[in-house]
């Protein structure tokens, strides 16, 4: 009497299930595959399960075809075996190329994408121009306030800028007062005056009324009456 092992699902266990595959097993699989035998027939001849036979057949395919569904492996292998030069043994030892390494680059845009120095530069401008730009002001200052170090840096930079601006304005006012000190807004004796450039100004040199040099701007007002 022959005894067949049965698992908990009532399916008979293949007699060679779990045993290593040998060269003869592969050659038998190839021969039966050439004969267009189905998975169950080949499995019975090898003492294996049909699922195992289909998995082995899939491993004998070219690397780029091993993603085929299991039940298509035998049919595809039979197609390759029609070519007498198909080397199924060599195909088995070839491994799939490594998966490409994905390098994700995250890029922040808008205010959140600004570097610290850029953020502080924008914040300085907003501090010196206290009107307008509500949306950008809210975004920039909101980010500044999240980091006490940025708050301190901004305070230091804006404070310095305000002092520098005050000094520059004072120098410019002194220069103007020196040249426009009469009731009419300019010196009576200075009918034709010239100064290379006011302190802190980047404009071209200027000269007074009647200046012969066309490059210079005539700043002297005309007499009334």
From TrEMBL:
Region (Disordered): 1-20
Highest taxon, organism lineage: Bacteria
Protein name: Uncharacterized protein
């Amino acid at each position: 009497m022959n005894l067949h092992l049965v698992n908990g699902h009532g399916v008979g266990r293949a007699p060679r299930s779990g045993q290593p595959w040998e060269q003869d097993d592969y050659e038998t699989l190839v021969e039966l595959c050439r004969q267009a035998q189905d998975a169950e027939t080949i499995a019975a001849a090898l003492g294996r399960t049909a699922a195992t036979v289909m998995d082995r057949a899939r491993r004998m395919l070219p690397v780029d075809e091993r993603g085929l569904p299991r039940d298509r492996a035998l049919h595809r292998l039979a197609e390759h075996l029609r070519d007498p030069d198909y080397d199924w043994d060599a195909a088995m030892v070839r491994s799939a190329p490594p998966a490409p390494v994905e390098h994700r680059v995250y890029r922040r845009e808008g205010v959140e994408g600004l570097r610290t120095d850029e953020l502080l530069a924008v914040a300085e401008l907003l501090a010196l121009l206290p009107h307008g730009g509500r949306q950008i002001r809210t975004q920039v200052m909101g980010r500044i306030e999240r980091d006490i170090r940025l708050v301190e840096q901004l305070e230091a930079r804006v404070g310095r800028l305000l002092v520098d601006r005050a000094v520059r304005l004072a120098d410019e006012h002194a220069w103007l007062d020196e040249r426009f000190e009469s009731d009419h807004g300019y010196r009576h004796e200075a009918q034709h005056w010239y100064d290379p450039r006011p302190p802190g100004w980047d404009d071209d040199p200027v000269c007074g009324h009647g200046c012969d040099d066309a490059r210079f701007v005539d700043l002297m007002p005309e007499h009334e009456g």
